[in-house]
């Protein structure tokens, strides 16, 4: 069983303040990520959102565990009605006038193995699309 976390890095042609705003502002997140109910960039904030694989919609239950402005945002990620808990972190690194974002999603092995929607490959594909395409377009396509 592969318990290595999913890790994706991208460098955006945008200052760190703009990237931080995109990953912590509920209205901006709605444009490239999900519509996050009750999201507030504060440790302890619990929020949820719906997302799925086209066949089924899953309610995601999350709680912010770490917040270091313009450096790191981390939260727990569970599915309503399913076992397992995982953790997502967004780390930002200023590189001249660009920003390198490192996304890590760990704990995927704790989800039910018999559900293809929880397969590691699906998370890799999903995060690649979200970070490498949607967030990229949101930050650089305006």
Could you characterize the architecture of this molecule?
This protein has helices at residues 16-24, 26-32, 120-140, and strands at 6-12, 46-52, 57-68, 72-79, 86-95, 98-106. The model has no long low-confidence stretch (mean pLDDT 94). It has 142 residues and is of the alpha+beta class. A hairpin with a 3-residue loop joins strand 3 (57-68) and strand 4 (72-79). The chain has a 6-stranded antiparallel beta sheet, covered by helices on one side.
Which tags fit this structure?
about 140 residues, six-stranded antiparallel sheet, about 35% strand
Brief write-up:
The chain contains three helices and six strands, in the order βααβββββα. The protein has about 140 residues and is α+β, with helices and mostly antiparallel strands.
Strand order of the largest sheet: 1-6-5-4-3-2
Shape descriptor reads globular
Helix % is 25-40%
The ordered H/E elements are: EHHEEEEEH
Largest sheet: 6 strands, antiparallel
Helix tally? 3
Distance between the termini: 41 Å
What number is the mean pLDDT?
94
Category by helix and strand content? alpha+beta
Number of separate strands: 6
Query: Strand percentage, roughly?
Result: 35-45%
Gyration radius, to the nearest Å?
15 Å
* Unreliable residue stretches: none
